[in-house]
């Protein structure tokens, strides 16, 4: 099939590349000329494991192309994906200006029946708006389908190529046929294409993200309580996760959820509820808890250094909002770095992939180290913000030589408490006993 993907960000690039991999002819369109130029020169602007192999193969074999010209990009396409940003507007609702602008632009340049697919995360009712914007100027028949994307950054290719399910919102039999044909190579037995109406599909995406954010937040609250009652949240996770009704995944307590999706989507769903005069109490709490969870270690750090961080150097391991990505959107590390700087500390950071992105924001306010160990040199404490595998089994002897004090604040529970006790570290983590801490400081 011939496809167009409008918007070549995370989702657009993965969508375009993966559909090219299943034999389709794909043209990706983006207004960002520099991005398109890079892509045409074989440079992928994001770090996503496994994407490069597929990208280069499909570019070389002529199935994947890039352009800034919308009319050229959609020429002959049977399906046009909209993978455009839906950032939070001032009131927290998803801003539809990118989607609706492209929809208006599409109307006059369509010249045959086409299925326009909302891949972006969009509030209930958006498919109708997109339809109306296209219809204003369209002279041909078309359908608008909601096909939300559930991929996770870091494992995006795997998620896209082997989806748990594909949700397609449409009441058009013609569009259903086109979408079934397109997804046939990606859905395995038991991993269904689920058809529903457009509004339900739009709502499904928000319900999934809000549910997962709530699950994480619930565990973070259990962790906070564990610290007070003297229980271990990792044991609780194992104890409840083995109940198949609860499930093992997304139960890891830490310094809150971040990324480009959960924070904005939870907020947007809360705004939808407000617009429909529904008081969605759970979501409000989830947002509040996550806000404070992100910087939950800061008071402990300040207290550990007896209320004064001036002249102290804090080493940070991990800047990305999670491992296997260079994405720092809503990354807890940024909030923590800002809080540490405000408290007068110096910060030296290391991340395997995300340092350039942070440098673009913070410039020389912090020091960037070339290796994880270099970040520790003469530091007064180590703070772990992202659970990159590299940080899990470090050379503790080497760390002892570099760190001024054997103190670790672990926002992702990367180490075992007993291990840290044996190694003689002062160790603070999430939802577990703090070890080797003087009685007055114990939390
Ligand atoms: N990032 C994820 O992991 C993820 C996963 C699932 C769903 N989503 C949703 O998918 C959507 C896109 O997310 P993203 O992370 O890929 O966004 P992004 O910001 O990384 O990329 C969006 C791209 O659209 C381009 N663009 C803007 N206006 C344009 C126009 N008029 N014509 C052509 N291109 C234009 C931008 O230049 C940019 O390259 C959002 O709604 C997001 O919530 C994201
Ligand atoms: O047990 C867990 C699991 C995740 N997180 C945090 O939750 C955030 C989001 O993680 P993850 O869901 O893996 O990353 P995303 O790439 O943001 O993916 C989410 O957001 C995407 C965009 O909507 C959806 O497509 C995906 O299905 C959904 O998982 C990150 O900050 C993680 O550190 C935890 O704190 N504990």
UniProtKB/TrEMBL annotation:
Residue ranges of domain UDP-glucose/GDP-mannose dehydrogenase C-terminal in the record: 315-417
GO MF term list: NAD binding; UDP-glucose 6-dehydrogenase activity
Residues given in the record as NAD(+) binding sites: 30, 35, 86, 121, 153, 264, 329
Record carries keyword Oxidoreductase: yes
Residues engaged in binding substrate: 150-153, 205, 250-254, 258, 322
Keyword NAD: yes
Keywords for the protein's UniProt record, in alphabetical order: NAD, Oxidoreductase
Stored InterPro entries: 6-PGluconate_DH-like_C_sf, NAD(P)-bd_dom_sf, UDP-Glc/GDP-Man, UDP-Glc/GDP-Man_DH_C, UDP-Glc/GDP-Man_DH_C_sf, UDP-Glc/GDP-Man_DH_dimer, UDP-Glc/GDP-Man_DH_N, UDPglc_DH_bac
Annotated Pfam families: UDPG_MGDP_dh (PF00984), UDPG_MGDP_dh_C (PF03720), UDPG_MGDP_dh_N (PF03721)
Reactions catalysed according to its record: UDP-alpha-D-glucose + 2 NAD(+) + H2O = UDP-alpha-D-glucuronate + 2 NADH + 3 H(+)
Pathway: Nucleotide-sugar biosynthesis; UDP-alpha-D-glucuronate biosynthesis; UDP-alpha-D-glucuronate from UDP-alpha-D-glucose: step 1/1
Enzyme Commission number: 1.1.1.22
Source organism superkingdom: Bacteria
GO process terms (BP): polysaccharide biosynthetic process; UDP-glucuronate biosynthetic process
UniProt-annotated catalytic positions: 261
Enzyme class: oxidoreductase
Family: Belongs to the UDP-glucose/GDP-mannose dehydrogenase family.
PANTHER family registered for this protein in UniProt: UDP-GLUCOSE 6-DEHYDROGENASE TUAD
UniProt xrefs under NCBIfam families: NDP-sugDHase
Protein name: UDP-glucose 6-dehydrogenase
Organism lineage string: Bacteria, Pseudomonadati, Bacteroidota, Cytophagia, Cytophagales
